[in-house]
Amino acid sequence: MTVTIDPATVAQRFREEIRAQLQAAREPLHLVGILAGDHAPSLTYALYAQRACSELGIGFELRRYPRLGAENAIRSANADAEVHGIIVYYPIFGTEQDVYLRELVDPGKDIEGLHSKWARHLYENRRFVDADKTRKAILPCTPLAIVKLVEAAGFFHKTGRPLEGRTVTVFNRSEVVGRPLASMLAHDGANVYSFDVDGPLHFQPPPQHEPDAAHSLAETEITRAEALAASDIVITGVPSKSFELVRAAELRPGALCINFSTYKNFSDDVVSEGKAACFIPRVGPMTVLMVIRNALRLQQQNAG
Amino acid sequence: MTVTIDPATVAQRFREEIRAQLQAAREPLHLVGILAGDHAPSLTYALYAQRACSELGIGFELRRYPRLGAENAIRSANADAEVHGIIVYYPIFGTEQDVYLRELVDPGKDIEGLHSKWARHLYENRRFVDADKTRKAILPCTPLAIVKLVEAAGFFHKTGRPLEGRTVTVFNRSEVVGRPLASMLAHDGANVYSFDVDGPLHFQPPPQHEPDAAHSLAETEITRAEALAASDIVITGVPSKSFELVRAAELRPGALCINFSTYKNFSDDVVSEGKAACFIPRVGPMTVLMVIRNALRLQQQNAG
């Protein structure tokens, strides 16, 4: 039988942890969401984050601007000592100008973990900001949410590297989710086949005796069928109706299936045939908690 | 009569300046070109840069890799004290991963001026890196080449802000050329109408009494016809055959026309009707000199 896991249930546990940390914090968290332009789903995401914060007693101030106001809005939130964390809702321009805005956010307030400073930490497997290893680097919120869901689904080893020997297929290699996710999974010991329209890449874990090295990356000729048949975990994030849904027949028995896109990426038979062990149909409720978790971490580190 | 200006002729003057600077330099310049993947035009550009460097007695080492080698190639060129400047030839992945690579280049070796550190200096009109104003910020090479060509064409005022009161239309708002160019022209005093598929934006110069402030930016309803009829300078960079060529009838008499794309963007009648004052059909020969000029600047600053 395939168990469908509701990420909101997993999120509940993290919510309790965060509540305890909030009580210990010396200053209430104050987050700012910057909503510019008129991309309708962004408002939905922003209100969702606002509600999640409100439930935890966290201040989340949603600031709205025309698209040309975003740049100065980021600068003033960067400069404002009262603001602990910034979420910018993209797309704003829908061009590479959005990347300029993303890089403009102070990494010390980038609670989504999207700045290239954090990307470099991640890809180079440098888990701490300082030589004394007291301040942890920030991880991007959606990949982090997915890794926590893999753990919650029981796919982590209790000792050693948590995904040692596991094979994972990820459909999506965006800079925001798919590529950082593949890298994180490889650093945890997995062999990851990463597919996008450009074909597959193989993210290889660092050698077991060098767990602090970075993953390596190789071209591969592996087919979708071969990768899926070999995979303990299959993660999809393809925002397209033309994606060929992953079917039960393609899976390895006992696989964990996770979809982080808002499109259907798995065929219904993945649950109905009972071949997969678990199916997690969405990750959103975990993502917002990871943003708050990052915010707490940055608040502590910036204060210390 | 419309004068067609060959940018190679203008470049000749800069070449002599650079030759003199090279003789005064304490150490020979050593530049590295990183060519990864199989985008054919990149090899052409790289060989062109190599020839331009060779004519000036500058070492330009072209390093070739498969696409997955680019990341470590950048890291090792960053770490190598013998390397004064790095040029990375894009596209490599042709996705946002290329932006990650661009940000990975040490800004102190980014002789093309593409890193977000330099973009922030430019957009905020901070022309120096240090408070004592001894070390100038690096400007992106193609926009800089275009501004130098505007000057060479005689469109700069001799006193005050060089483009005070001028109106400019730019077709292209990419992060690599069109947007930084519009910002630079506005900081020099021009009103700039920037067009792309997304419509026009108006880059407004800082007030005359605050020349160190940043340009401002406004939405505008101006049409292409209105902008062209008002413009002293028209600059195009549209890499598409479907772009409606700019015709003589659309121009203000005496305009300066510059095309920086490799596609034809101006109708032949712009030259044959004699309405424009000058036409500059390409900028490439100037761009490569601006890269070398940036390299010299960074070498001096990093040594000092």
Bin the helical content of chain A.
Answer: 25-40%
Strand content of chain A: 15-25%
User: Helix tally of chain A?
Assistant: 10
Topology, number of strands of chain A: 11
- The CATH architecture category of the largest domain in chain A equals 3-Layer(aba) Sandwich
Largest sheet of chain A: 8 strands, mixed
Question: What oligomeric arrangement do these chains adopt?
Answer: homodimer
Total domains of chain A: 2
Mean pLDDT of chain A: 96
| Euclidean distance between termini CA atoms of chain A | 49 Å
Task: Name the poorly predicted regions of chain A.
Answer: none
Taking all Cα atoms into account, the compactness measure Rg of chain A is: 19 Å
Set down the secondary structure blueprint.
The structure is a homodimer of 304-residue chains.
Chain A: E1 3-4, H1 7-24, E2 30-36, H2 40-55, E3 59-65, H3 70-79, E4 85-89, H4 97-104, H5 116-123, H6 141-152, E5 167-171, H7 178-187, E6 191-196, E7 199-204, E8 216-219, H8 224-230, E9 233-236, E10 256-259, H9 269-272, E11 278-280, H10 284-303
Parallel strand pairs in A: 1-11, 2-3, 2-4, 5-6, 5-9, 9-10, 10-11
Antiparallel strand pairs in A: 6-7, 7-8
Helix pairs in contact in A: 1-10, 6-7, 6-10
Essential attributes:
37% helix; 2 domains; three-stranded parallel β-sheet; Rossmann fold; eight-stranded mixed β-sheet; 304 residues; alpha/beta; homodimer; 11 strands
Task: Please describe what this structure looks like.
Two copies of one chain form a homodimer. The first copy, chain A, has 304 residues and is α/β, with parallel strands linked by helices. In chain A, 37% of the residues lie in helices and 17% in strands. Chain A folds into two domains: 85 residues, Leucine Dehydrogenase, chain A, domain 1 (Rossmann fold); 144 residues, 3-Layer(aba) Sandwich (Rossmann fold), CATH 3.40.50. In chain A, the strands form two sheets. Chain A has an eight-stranded mixed beta sheet, with helices on both faces. In chain A, strands 3-2-4 form a three-stranded parallel beta sheet, with helices on both faces. The mean pLDDT of chain A is 96.
